[in-house]
Amino acid sequence: MSFLTIGHRGVMGVEPENTLRSFVRAERAGMDAIELDLHLSKDGALVVMHDAAVDRTTDGTGPIAEKTLAELRELDAGQGERIPVFEEVLDAVGLPLQVEIKDAAVARVLADVMVKRDLVDRIEVTSFQDDAVREINALVPGVRTALVASRWGSDIVERALAVGAPALALNIRRLTLETVEHAHDEGLRVIGWVVNTQDHLRLVRALELDGATTDFPEIRRTGRFTA
């Protein structure tokens, strides 16, 4: 597979994160894929937001899990944008999506949508939680998955293999050549996040990563030498 440039929550460096506006801008900027995050609303909707609470990215307060979708729709997610649901993103952009899930409960709802809409070829599901990766792999035959980590031990490659994840998404600031080589030796792809500077891009090239997640559309242009 060729090198992938993935828009982080759309292009959150220049647009409100995890909004349709941000996702459309990422597609227009030529990103290869878009990364987003899912939580469940009180009434079971797949809500696109990174945090478990709405406080940081909207004009509201409180946990997503305690609000219905209708209540969440009333909030401003930045520049007049409303909090989208996953199905709206599927219809708004045509790019492949890298979808981060927070737990096994989200995995079960997402699996239902993926099967009904035949999304196996379009969606890569990621999580920091080993159990969530294991769950989606069990529910959706052929799904592509990645184990995410910010800090990790020497067993990170073995953890990915144990849950059936063919890829790792790892914090670029802590990545070492040893980890990348170990992963590649075991047939795993390695994505670095978040790659926002020229120094990060040089590190991506030196480590021979398979892709990078970025907040800024210009990284797609200036980083083409990594392909």
From TrEMBL:
GP-PDE domain span: 3-224
Species of provenance: Streptomyces pacificus
InterPro entries: GP_PDE_dom, PLC-like_Pdiesterase_TIM-brl
Protein's recorded name: Glycerophosphodiester phosphodiesterase
Coiled-coil residues: none
GO BP annotations listed: lipid metabolic process
Residues passing through the membrane, by range: none
Pfam family, one: GDPD
GO molecular function list: phosphoric diester hydrolase activity
